[in-house]
Amino acid sequence: xxxxxxxxxxxxxxxxxxxxxxxxxxxLQKEAEFLGFSFKECEVVTIQSxxxxxxxxxxxxxxxxxxxxxxxxxxxxxxxxxxxxxxTCADEFAPAVAEGLILGLYSFDKxxxxxxxxxxxxxxxxxxxxxxxxxxxxxxxxxYVNFARDLVNSHPEEIYPASFVKVMKDxxxxxxxxxxxxxxxxxxEEKMGAILAVARASRHEPRVLHLSxxxxxxxxxxxxxxxxxxxxxGGLSLKPSDFMVSMKSDKSGGVAVSSAIxxxxxxxxxxxxxxxxxxxxxxxxxxxxxxxxxxxxxNGKTIEVKNTxxxxxxxxADCLDYACExxxxxxxxxxxxTGACVVAFGDYTTGIMGHNEKLKHGMxxxxxxxGELVGSLPFNRYLKELLKSPVADMSNIGSxxxxxxxxxxxxxxxxxxxxxxxxxxxxxxAGPAFVDKEWGxxxxxxxxxxxxxxxxxxxxxxx
Length: 463
Ligand code: BES
Ligand code: ZN
Ligand code: ZN
Prior knowledge:
By secondary structure, the protein is of the alpha/beta class. Strand 14, helix 12 (357-370) and strand 15 form a beta-alpha-beta unit. It is built from 15 helices and 19 strands. It has helices at 26-34, 63-77, 94-105, 129-153, 161-171, 184-189, 193-199, 241-244, 252-267, 312-324, 339-345, 357-370, 381-385, 404-413, 451-462, and strands at residues 2-6, 14-20, 43-47, 52-57, 84-88, 122-126, 178-182, 207-213, 221-232, 272-282, 294-296, 302-304, 330-335, 349-354, 373-376, 394-395, 424-428, 434-435, 445-446. An 8-stranded mixed sheet has the order 7-8-10-9-13-17-14-15, sandwiched between helices. It has a 6-stranded mixed sheet with strand order 1-6-5-2-4-3, with helices on both faces. Strands 11-12-16 form a 3-stranded mixed sheet. It folds into 2 domains: 2-127, 3-Layer(aba) Sandwich (Leucine Aminopeptidase, subunit E, domain 1), CATH 3.40.220; 142-462, Aminopeptidase (3-Layer(aba) Sandwich), CATH 3.40.630.
């Protein structure tokens, strides 16, 4: 699919036209109303006689309406015998429309023997060079959102730690990104005892992937840490069957931070970025780590394992400690960390936690601009008490069934150095990373959650 911007459009096969607040040609209105169109928000109608799909936008201040409307419309046209599609909307709405089109067109058919073909090739906007540049930037970000969706949806015998690294190496080949990979012996040397414990029962050895983008002259440094559980069976604290299904998506945080750094590098943003991904498969077996084990993390702190299904925080613990040594200006970890976060916010919202209110607000604003839903969960001293262990420095789960998203975040706090406390945010994407039904311009399955959010935050750092 190509996004094309032209001064004048002479020929095209079909058109998607955005109608804002009922501003419509009288003849079209008659036809649309005849077909039952009633000017609802994001409502779509096909007028075959005019070779047009109309999309109605009531509230044009909320750009999400344009994305959802564009996605609805393009899902209709992609089944038509149509190659060149003209998109008609005001310039100010075009970036949102382009985003909705590209994200809405996504489908995952890698494992289908029969692929659904679309004839759609060119999405043509009218506009000048400025618009062309703006839409090119949108296309780059969407390309990596769709890349993230593909990788999250890929099954766990295809994507395991070593193959995850291979995919990323191939993908960064043309980008100004350096890549360092820690294998088992490097991870041992680094004394990343928590990662090693989680990884032990898997036939797939763990990896720590460290990608870096260092443009000349950048003055700020962002370090991203991602949970890359290529599969989470729960370990010996085995997940019930229904909860294990979809745990291929437990790598979504690692996928999101890797995709974000690639988008940032391709956009050429003026900020140094690192992405560190802890890649592990959490399995069962005679060699599995156990409830009751006490493990020693990279920073020397001891952890009593009470539940092997709380493995993500163990992997992140070692990665965060490693990340702090890079002395970033911003440190964000992203993880499908807790079911409790999904209970708190529902499927679609990322939970933000941290010590710095201003930074949390900055991420909230990046959510508003990017269109990702984020909400804040507060740390407090009483929940911290729940992580106490009689035998080790801490336990890997809280002692209460309530507040699980926050206790997980407060567990991670133990691995963020004092100097980094105010620079750190924890982002729990367990809800939006993988959803069983399609929502807005997101498909069933992997959504690419976190990519647009992180890219948008990075933009605010360069300004
Ligand atoms: N990967 C899961 C969290 C998760 C749940 C992600 C649902 C996506 C959807 C994580 O490793 C986990 O199992 N967490 C446990 C923690 C509990 C044992 C304290 C959970 O949330 O149940
Ligand atoms: Zn788990
Ligand atoms: Zn997990």
